[in-house]
Structures are given as C-alpha cells and as structure tokens.
Amino acid sequence: MSNVEFVPKDRWESLPVQPTAAAWRTRRRLLTVAVAAGIAWAAVLAILAVNGTADAGFHPWEPWVPLIFVVVPCIVAAARQARADRAERDRGYTTLRN
C-alpha cells in the first residue's frame, strides 16, 4: 500500500489538483443538506395529499421537480470529488481527512 500524505487546508493553493477533493466535499455536503430538506418538504406535501388537506389543484409530482434540480448537482459534485480524490492519491497526497 502506498504512503499517502494528508495536506492541511493552508497548503491547498499550491497543489496541482484544483479544486481539491476536500473543496468538492464541502460543496457536496451543502447540496446534501438541500436534498434532505427537499425530501422532508416533499414528505410533508405527500402527507397533506394523502390526508386530503392539499389544495384542489395540487399535483403529487410538483414537489419533486425542484428536488431533482438539487439532486443532479449533488451527484455531479460527488463524481468530481471522487475524480479529484483519485488524482490526489495518484500524486501521493490527499486533502480529505477520514
């Protein structure tokens, strides 16, 4: 197994892989919180629809449309984080602390 060095945040600017995997992790975590909030909101609206207290013109698929616009960037950020992490580890360092 190769020796991989952890690089602290104050040295990230000089690294060859930019943006770093840790920067992508931060972005992905923010998007993950937005996805969780969207799922909770969709669940509340689904409960209202099942109970019959939703508006007459309510369509069950409507709460999921904005959620899809948050999920897609989250998936993209996760893929870019994985790619940056792989590139960092190939160079013998990592910005991700496990």
Give an account of the 3D structure.
The chain has about 100 residues and is mainly alpha-helical. Helices cover about 60% and strands about 5% of the residues. It contains 2 helices and 2 strands. The chain has a two-stranded parallel sheet with strand order 1-2. It is rod-shaped and about 60 Å long. It starts with a strand and ends with a strand. The model has no long low-confidence stretch (mean pLDDT about 85).
Helix content: 55-70%
- Radius of gyration, CA atoms, in whole angstroms: 19 Å
**If you average the pLDDT, what whole number results?**
87
Q: SS-based structural class? A: mainly alpha
Topology order in helix (H) and strand (E) letters: EHHE
> Which word captures the global form?
rod-shaped
Largest sheet: 2 strands, parallel
Strand content: under 5%
How many angstroms separate the termini?
17 Å
Poorly predicted ranges: none
Count, helices: 2
Strand order, sheet with most strands = 1-2
Secondary structure: number of strands: 2
Brief overview:
The chain is mainly alpha-helical and 98 residues long. The protein has helices at 21-51, 64-90; strands at 5-6, 93-94. It is 59% helix and 4% strand.
